Amino acid sequence: MSILSTDKIVLHAAAKDKYEAIRLAGELLVQAGHVTADYVEKMIERENIVSTYMGAGLAIPHGTKEAKSMVLSTGLSIIRFPEGVDFGGDEPAFVVIGIAGAGGEHMEILTQVAMIFSDDDSIDRVMNAATKEEIMELFGGELA
User: Fold this and answer.
1) Helix, strand or coil for residue 95?
2) What pLDDT band is residue 111 in, cutting at 50, 70 and 90?
3) How far is CA 61 from the centre of its chain?
4) Marked catalytic residue, from 12, 34, 62, 106
5) Most buried among 71, 83, 88, 129, by the most CB within 10 A?
């Protein structure tokens, strides 16, 4: 099972709030078999502890430490919200990346995603990608 696949990418989504956005990202991980359904609630719990909004239009929701046993395999989901979703920051999140890291891979994946979003050209490529394959190509290079 790959960390990222086109079935875990949504290019045009809408959510009424950050919790709906997190549930959408989490459900993609559940459907792909990366996590149990309970993991999604741990993603919400994490958000209530500290915002997963990173800046630059990016939020990276993930489960709490207690959720490690709910992770079946490492996976990512990527959802673009063209209208943005309020995560309580100065600007909305336009991209929400759900992360489930098995074993010690969690921090490594967070770092790799952060590296992609530290480059303005990469951010533009994610925001303007016309196909899921374009996003796969960008993330595939970093997550190989």
Assistant:
1) strand
2) confident
3) 6
4) 62
5) 71
Told to judge if 62 belongs to the known catalytic residues of this protein, a careful annotator would answer yes
Question: Tokens 């960390």 label which residue?
Answer: 3
Residue 144 has pLDDT above 50, yes or no: no
SS3 97: strand
Distance CA 8, CA 91 (A): 25
Q: Which tens digit of pLDDT belongs to each residue from 47-98?
A: 999 999 988 899 999 999 899 999 999 999 999 999 999 998 788 999 999 9
